[in-house]
Known about the structure:
With about 160 residues, the chain is of the alpha+beta class. Helix content is about 45%, strand content about 25%. The chain is built from 5 helices and 5 strands. Strand 4 (about 30-40) and strand 5 form a beta hairpin. The model is unreliable at about 75-95 (pLDDT under 50).
Amino acid sequence: VTISKTNINGVETTEVTEASGRKIKIEKNKTIKVTVTEKVDGKEKTKTYEADDEEALKKKHADAHKLYEKYGKNGGAPNLRAFGIQRLQAFPANRGQALPNRRAMQKGMTEAQTKLEAMVKQLEATAKANEKADPDALRSQLEEAIKMLKQAQGKK
């Protein structure tokens, strides 16, 4: 289960994707709107339920109210606390992905930049002196710098 919660201009939106593939979107502003999308016979089928408040949702659409209870209240936090998660932080650009440690990433990028700058100076010095540079050593240093940059960016 992945849960994403946003609050933009007072409109609370909770988006849930369950392991089964069912998607649930709960929007709460002046009304409560629950949208459920699931595949039926290979086609996506969407149902929308709307009510003025929680009590009306419970009376009109009991199934939608159960989803609201499970995911909509507090963004699903009670459900997540069962897994030992006490506090949520939102990183919309990385939905569901682990974030790399910023300090480690910055350090890696700084080290790679320093290596690349040193190699540029070595190439300039070689060109000025009209000497032959060891291409294997330069290639090895470039590959190492590229590897460091990829690690700093969280890529393999």
